[in-house]
Amino acid sequence: MVGCPFSCVVWDLDGTLLERGGLTPVDGVETLLAAWSADGVEMAVATSAPTGLARRVVDELGWSSWFGHVAGTGPGVVGKDEVLVEALLGLGRVLPDGAVGAAMVGDAPTDVAAARRHGLTAVGVTWSGTPADVLGGADLIWSHPPS
Ligand SMILES: [Mg+2]
């Protein structure tokens, strides 16, 4: 397992950690999350799903211990930009300094845009079918979970 190049990783859920539109973990992500968590990488989820639903899903998958915070949408928190800020705050990271060493990993242009807007490294993933050129603003493109 490759070591994590970041001190903090904020993950999108649908199409990134989970197969798009479902509750099936993407092959390889559980091994990766377990390893990076054990290495002390701070991790959070930032999803456009409602926070309560997202927390239930993460809990039912048995993933809760890997994440310092699970942030979704809700009152006053709309859109990936705001969810990302919530996710970082939940890890005790206040912007702009909180972005240092942090990456946002996601399969949508909104994930890439949120990362860039807040000064995180933007990692676009193509394993759910998003073409790399759609994620053109990303600093890095991952076609498979690092292994
Ligand atoms: Mg997604």
From TrEMBL:
Organism listed in the record: Actinomycetospora corticicola
UniProt keyword ATP-binding, yes or no: no
Biological-process GO terms, alphabetical: DNA repair
UniProt-listed InterPro entries: HAD-like_hydrolase_sf, HAD-like_sf, HAD_sf
Superkingdom of source: Bacteria
Any single Gene Ontology cellular-component annotation: cytosol
Protein name: Phosphoglycolate phosphatase-like HAD superfamily hydrolase
PANTHER family xrefs: PHOSPHOGLYCOLATE PHOSPHATASE
Coiled-coil features, chain-numbered ranges: none
Entry keyword Hydrolase: yes
MF term (GO), any: phosphoglycolate phosphatase activity
Record key words, sorted: Hydrolase
Name of a matching Pfam family: Hydrolase
